[in-house]
Amino acid sequence: MASSATTAGTGPVFHLEEEHAHAEGSSTMLGFWLYLMSDCLIFAMLFAAYGVLGGNYAAGPAPKDLFDLDLVAVNTTMLLLSSITYGFAMLTMDKGRVAATQAWLAVTGLFGLAFLSIELYEFAHMIHEGATPQRSAFLSSFFTLVGTHGLHVTFGIVWLVTLMTQVARFGLTEANRRRLMCLSMFWHFLDVVWIGVFTFVYLMGMLR
Amino acid sequence: MSAHDHAESHGHAHGGAAHGSFKGYLIGFVLSVILTAIPFWLVMSGVIDNKQATAIVIMAFAVVQIVVHMVFFLHMNTASEGGWSMLALIFTLILVVIVLTGSLWVMYHLNANMMPGLHDMREMP
Q1: Which H or E run includes A110?
Q2: In angstroms, what CA-CA distances link B110 with A51, A113, A114?
Q3: CA A40, CA A138: separation in Å to the nearest integer?
Q4: How many beta carbons lie within 10 A of that of residue A30, not counting itself?
Q5: Which of residues 106-165 of A touch B (CB under 8 A)?
Q6: Distance, in angstroms, between B3 CA and closest chain A CA?
Q7: N or C: which end of chain B has fewer CB within 10 A?
Q8: For residue A96, what is the DSSP state?
């Protein structure tokens, strides 16, 4: 039908009225925000699972025996610092200063690595003490929740290094700015999730 | 703050997402340090005798800190993306509240009803 209309030229011509031009990447930020919201739901499920199972120690170790709040405080500091250094990277990006942006991104990555190292040290320490994910429902849900957050940070760092390479090769192009802004949202979002983790898992765990 | 951000934005296709300012990031950072330090101090020192009260206070601090991060770091406001990101956020929050309170509530009562001693198993059909 449509093809005959276009070839004959006499029949009705169809226009897709709703289809107007969008600037490239104009919807990326909203789309990425929607992804973050769906990620938020994943974490909500994991928090709910931890909330339900967090008290089932199966006669194994409880939060009080395992958690070291000093370590968690240092960890939280690392993530908070990485959040503000990423903010500084965004501000220098706005001014178009490539070297300063790269430097702040590198600092952010180092804080992220410090966070991950401390978390892995904590996990290794717990597993060494026999507090493995198989030990109890509490530990299964703990490792799933905190591990998923750690995995997100890991992917954030991989993304950060990728973008630093991109910026080094192509400069602060519009596409690279957009990508850096997406990672900015991702990074700050992980910090928001961590607020939930240290409050709900670590601090409230010590109160049990 | 949002008017300042819009004045600062410069024609790039960043879809209305504001970047914030140095001052904004600094305020957010200082606030989040304070809002992190107080709950840690409360739990580590045990100033409040009542554990339930401590739990409620640190949860309140967490909520405030999440809002601070949303405003100062994620630059959430009702205007960004023509209000769609705020709408998505509100929708997500409603789902999160349903999932969390629903799971905890239902499972708590399930646990309470499964307590040995509460029901005599011999009376079960």
Answers
A1: helix A98-128
A2: 14, 41, 41
A3: 21
A4: 18
A5: none
A6: 17
A7: C
A8: T
C-alpha torsion B113→B118→B120→B121, nearest 10: 30
ipTM of the complex model: 0.85
CA A109 to CA A85: how far, in whole Å? 9
A10: amino acid identity, one letter: T
Q: Which two tokens stand for residue A163?
A: 């973008």
**Which residues lie closer than 8 Å to A46 by C-beta, 6 or more apart?**
A141, A144, A145, A148
DSSP at B116: B
**Confidence (pTM):** 0.84
The domain ranges of chain B are 21-115
CA distance B48 to B54: 6
Q: How far is B120 from chain A (nearest CA, A)?
A: 22
Pick among A53, A71, A72, A192 to test the B interface (most B CBs inside 10 A) = A192
A203 and B40 within 8 Å at the Cβ level: the answer is yes
Helices (H) and strands (E) in chain B, counts: 4, 0
